[in-house]
């Protein structure tokens, strides 16, 4: 049985985002967020609810089947108008966002699309390219969460590279936190939280 007092990485991610969204409401911020890995749309739907009627979510994925599932999920919840989906890799974020877009936050859930071809995975090269393109347009106090999975082929290499990259971000400009379970032996996961000062 999972401990009741220590949240899972998914639960902790949602807690971070809910706290983040509360600060938007308090400041009257129109939230513009990026879902770098739409998958089947679970996170996209979560983000679309958080940004509210005035906000916007831009979602990216290379797999059309996932985008179709995500669109159906959003339409069923009657909030599809809050989301723009791109059938493109997240490394294209800079070229696909409307000119002058200031991004409030971004979420990445790495690995593969459950229920699909497990050979189609996120990779360090494109994930880091996406993050590097996103950080310059991230607003002050903007947050990026990156959920790293290592239980599939290529996952450990991607995770190690992204964590090494994040460790190089300048302290005067960013804070990088990490949440994980060091005693988990199989399928290790890490959550990176990047906040722009």
Describe the structure in your own words.
Keywords: Methyltransferase, Transferase. It comes from Halodesulfovibrio marinisediminis DSM 17456. This protein is of the alpha/beta class and 197 residues long. It is built from 6 helices and 7 strands, in the order αβαβαβαβαβαββ. Helix content is 36%, strand content 25%. The chain has a 7-stranded mixed sheet, with helices on both faces. α5 packs parallel to α6. It is globular.
Give the class-level CATH name: Alpha Beta
Q: What's the number of domains?
A: 1
| CATH-level-4 superfamily name | Vaccinia Virus protein VP39
The number of helices is 6
What's the end-to-end separation, in Å? 38 Å
Which term fits the overall shape? Answer: globular
Mean pLDDT: 91
Largest sheet: 7 strands, mixed
Note poorly predicted spans.
none
State Rg.
16 Å
Strand content: 15-25%
CATH architecture: 3-Layer(aba) Sandwich
Helix and strand pattern? HEHEHEHEHEHEE
Fraction of residues in helix: 25-40%
CATH topology: Rossmann fold
The structural class is alpha/beta
The largest sheet has its strands arranged as 3-2-1-4-5-7-6
Number of distinct beta strands: 7
């Amino acid at each position: 049985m999972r401990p009741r007092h220590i949240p899972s990485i998914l639960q902790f991610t949602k807690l971070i985002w809910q706290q983040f969204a509360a600060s938007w409401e308090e400041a009257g911020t129109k939230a513009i967020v990026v879902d770098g890995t739409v998958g089947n749309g679970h996170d996209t739907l979560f983000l679309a609810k958080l940004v509210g009627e005035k906000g916007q979510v831009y979602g990216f994925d290379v797999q059309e089947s996932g985008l179709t599932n995500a669109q159906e999920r959003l339409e069923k919840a009657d909030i599809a108008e809050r989301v723009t989906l791109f059938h493109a890799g997240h490394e294209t974020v800079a070229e696909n966002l409307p000119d002058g877009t200031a991004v409030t936050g971004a979420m990445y859930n790495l690995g593969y699309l459950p229920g699909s071809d497990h050979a189609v995975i996120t990779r360090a090269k494109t994930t880091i390219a996406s993050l590097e393109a996103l950080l310059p347009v991230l607003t002050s106090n903007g947050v990026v969460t990156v959920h790293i999975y290592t239980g599939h082929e290529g996952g450990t290499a991607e995770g190690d590279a992204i964590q090494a990259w994040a460790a190089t971000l300048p302290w005067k400009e960013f804070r990088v936190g990490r949440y994980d379970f060091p005693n988990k032996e199989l399928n290790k996961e890490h959550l990176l939280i990047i906040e722009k000062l």
